[in-house]
């Protein structure tokens, strides 16, 4: 049948419509749609509008994704190709598209071959008495059934199922459900989560399976587990954390080593590979935390219940036992199935007070020794890692305060928290030891890898940093992380460290999941994995499942098809890496949305910003968020030098480069889209402020 379609198009020697194809082939609509989709995906047929033609020479097929900064790109042969500005609105995340590459090495999208997002989020708006459905995805218009329209009110956020094969200007849509009403405190978070593929929806079958999981450990057969319930154990998390998957115990050994017990929730005991719960986790791959909203990988009954190491409760765990010497090296590592009893839920803020030594919060007196001993162990690990070249970039994490309605009222960049560093380095050590164990196992496994950056791109970052008045020599080689670590340490006392660190970081490759161990560049480790968060990350759960076989059922190893398992893990790694990237972008969008709510009162005020990216658009960080502006807003005198990646005004000797400080005017904020409109008033040279031509006029 495919050959018949191709022959008809060839005979016609021009574009042919769907209806004509259907009539001549005498097939039903669904069959023809599926056949055409297959032909489009394999590069045989191109659809533009409602017309089909043979696939032209020079046209390529790729997947639409996003960078961490939220810019749309097309993935083609492992290359990220930027999309020409004029083509942004016509495509959605995860679309398979046909495109050409123009002279600027930008993708010009010709058509959407396959639209993988079937459900989109819309807002109901009433204008001049007319009720309209406005999709949050630009480039899409929808028609909703009149009966569905009657149920909707102004300001409702809804989820609709779109007919992607409709060739009219408007897509026919079916109302799936109402997500939020006007003035709901979490409506923005719901919108963002849905747009990036996250939700808290669970099928009846899922809930039925969930209901069969026990609510406590009473009656569990603990004969195959090491019992640590008499050992002092505690968790350290944020004050509002409810899904606690890691706890710690500690003791000092006579030889001066510190024995640390890291207890991780044994999620794989309850979630099996053939379960609906696991299948759903494979789709979501991660929990998403947006301001005051959480979109769990597992239903909160599981993640906040039996799988959370709640204070005063017995819980099933996997425990990694490590003896840490004075130099931070780890000896005698064991991984055992265990049962623990959490004595106390501690918070980062309270543990910081204990470590500071000036104040002991109520309820912490009896745990002071354990906290300090655990901190000493973490310091040892950190020292060893830093000596080996690990790189710790500046955190841009904000501490935010909300009112009773969930509205952000203030925010500021958090300083370094000793308690957070304590947990961070002990979890790194745990993940490292588990990765070493997996390396010598007969089964394929999941690793967290971070590849070496390209020397050329690192030197581009150094050049941008030097434009800010620094003096750092370009690198001649990059055979280990120590060279970058030295640069990072040179910058860490600078008042602009946050920005400088961001500029350096953006030229690094992104960490990802892989079945091949390729080491972790930034951590300077030969092997690394994710094991410590199985409640909220799929790769961690996969590692737990592999360990179940290795530790508890080694007799099953020979019966496992290693090639099939490796292929399955490879596909899940790719999907988890993609969803992790989506989650990062969603979290950034949510943070930006909440900050914008605080900024309406600042319209008309001036701010200092820093240029973080230059290309078809210019990215400027101001007031802790990133704003994109079109180069036209600089004024007609500014021209773009692609080779040097800067905009310049030769008449006035003004240059806008990566890393440049600028003064911007907050002109307006569009509430419906959360778009910020700013104008660049001037460029700050090391000593002076140079006004733009546009501003002078």
What does the model show?
The protein is an alpha+beta fold and 697 residues long. 30% of the residues lie in helices and 28% in strands. The protein has 17 helices and 35 strands. Strands 29-28-27-33-34-35 form a 6-stranded antiparallel sheet. Strands 6-5-4-7-8 form a 5-stranded antiparallel sheet. Helix 12 (455-466) runs antiparallel to helix 14 (497-505). The longest helix has 38 residues, at 562-599. It starts with a helix and ends with a helix.
Looking at the structure, what is the overall shape? globular
Task: Tell me the total number of β-strands.
Answer: 35
Largest sheet entry: 6 strands, antiparallel
**Beta-strand residue fraction:** 25-35%
Kindly state the mean pLDDT as a whole number?
A: 85
The strand line-up of the biggest sheet is: 29-28-27-33-34-35
Count of helices?
Answer: 17
The end-to-end distance, rounded to whole angstroms, is: 65 Å
Low-pLDDT parts are: none
Structural class: alpha+beta
User: What fraction, in percent, of the residue positions are helical?
Assistant: 25-40%
Radius of gyration: 28 Å
Count of separate structural domains:
5
């Amino acid at each position: 049948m495919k050959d018949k379609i191709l022959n008809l198009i060839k005979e016609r020697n021009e574009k042919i419509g769907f209806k004509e194809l259907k009539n001549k082939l005498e097939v039903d609509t669904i069959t023809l749609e599926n056949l055409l989709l297959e032909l489009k995906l394999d590069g045989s047929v191109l659809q533009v509008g409602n017309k089909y033609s043979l696939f032209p020479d020079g046209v390529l097929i790729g997947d639409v994704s996003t960078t961490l900064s939220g810019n749309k790109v097309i993935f083609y042969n492992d290359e990220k190709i930027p999309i020409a500005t004029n083509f942004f609105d016509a495509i959605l995340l995860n679309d398979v598209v046909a495109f050409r590459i123009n002279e600027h090495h930008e993708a010009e999208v010709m058509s959407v071959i396959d639209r993988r997002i079937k459900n989109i989020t819309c807002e109901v708006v009433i204008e001049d008495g007319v009720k309209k459905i406005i999709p949050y995805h630009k480039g899409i218009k929808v028609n909703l059934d009149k009966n569905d329209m009657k149920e909707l009110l102004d300001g409702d956020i809804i989820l609709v199922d779109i007919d992607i094969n409709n060739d009219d200007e408007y897509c026919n849509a079916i109302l799936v459900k109402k997500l939020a009403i006007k003035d709901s405190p979490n409506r923005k978070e719901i919108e963002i989560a849905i747009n990036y593929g996250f939700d808290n929806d669970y099928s009846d079958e899922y809930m039925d399976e969930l209901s069969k999981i026990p609510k406590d450990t009473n009656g569990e057969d603990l004969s195959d587990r090491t019992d640590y319930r008499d050992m002092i154990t505690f968790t350290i998390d944020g004050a509002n954390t409810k899904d606690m998957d890691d706890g710690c115990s500690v003791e000092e050994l006579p030889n001066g080593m510190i024995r640390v017990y890291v207890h991780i929730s044994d999620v794989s005991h309850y979630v099996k590979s053939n379960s609906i719960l696991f299948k759903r986790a494979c789709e979501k791959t991660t929990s998403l935390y947006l301001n005051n909203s959480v979109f769990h990988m597992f239903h909160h009954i599981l993640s906040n219940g039996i799988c959370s190491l709640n204070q005063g409760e017995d819980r099933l765990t996997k425990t990694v036992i490590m003896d840490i010497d004075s130099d931070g090296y780890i000896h005698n590592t064991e991984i055992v199935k265990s049962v623990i009893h959490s004595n106390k839920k501690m918070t980062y803020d309270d543990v910081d007070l204990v470590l500071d030594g000036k104040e002991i919060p109520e309820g912490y007196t009896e745990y002071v020794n354990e906290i300090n001993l655990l901190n000493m162990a973490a310091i040892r690990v950190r020292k060893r890692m830093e000596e080996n070249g690990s790189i710790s970039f500046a955190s841009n994490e904000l501490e935010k305060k909300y009112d009773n309605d969930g509205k952000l009222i203030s925010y500021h960049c958090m300083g370094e928290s000793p308690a957070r560093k304590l947990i961070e380095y002990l979890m790194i050590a745990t993940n490292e030891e588990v990765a070493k164990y997996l390396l010598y196992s007969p089964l394929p496994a999941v690793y967290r890898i971070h590849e070496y950056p390209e020397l050329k791109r690192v030197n581009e970052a150094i050049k941008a940093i030097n434009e800010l008045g620094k003096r750092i020599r370009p690198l001649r080689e990059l055979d280990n992380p120590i060279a970058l670590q030295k640069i990072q340490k040179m910058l860490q006392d600078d008042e602009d460290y946050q920005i400088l660190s961001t500029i350096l970081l953006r030229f690094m490759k992104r960490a990802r999941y892989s079945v091949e161990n390729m080491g972790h560049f930034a951590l300077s480790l030969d092997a690394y994995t994710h094991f410590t968060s199985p409640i909220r990350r799929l790769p961690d759960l996969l590692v737990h499942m592999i360990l179940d076989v290795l530790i508890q059922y080694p007799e099953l190893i020979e019966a496992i098809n290693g090639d099939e398992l490796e292929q399955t893990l490879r596909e899940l790694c790719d999907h988890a890496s993609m969803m992790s990237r989506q989650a990062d972008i969603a979290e950034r969008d949510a943070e930006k949305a909440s900050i914008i709510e605080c900024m309406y009162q600042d319209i008309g005020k001036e701010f200092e910003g820093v240029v973080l990216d230059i290309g078809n658009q210019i990215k400027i960080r101001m007031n802790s968020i990133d704003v994109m502006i079109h180069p036209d807003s600089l004024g007609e005198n500014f021209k773009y030098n692609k080779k040097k990646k800067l905009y310049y005004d030769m008449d006035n000797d003004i240059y806008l480069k990566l890393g440049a400080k600028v003064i911007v005017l907050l002109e307006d904020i569009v509430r419906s889209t959360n778009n910020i409109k700013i104008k660049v008033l001037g460029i700050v040279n090391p000593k002076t402020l140079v006004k733009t031509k546009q501003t002078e006029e």
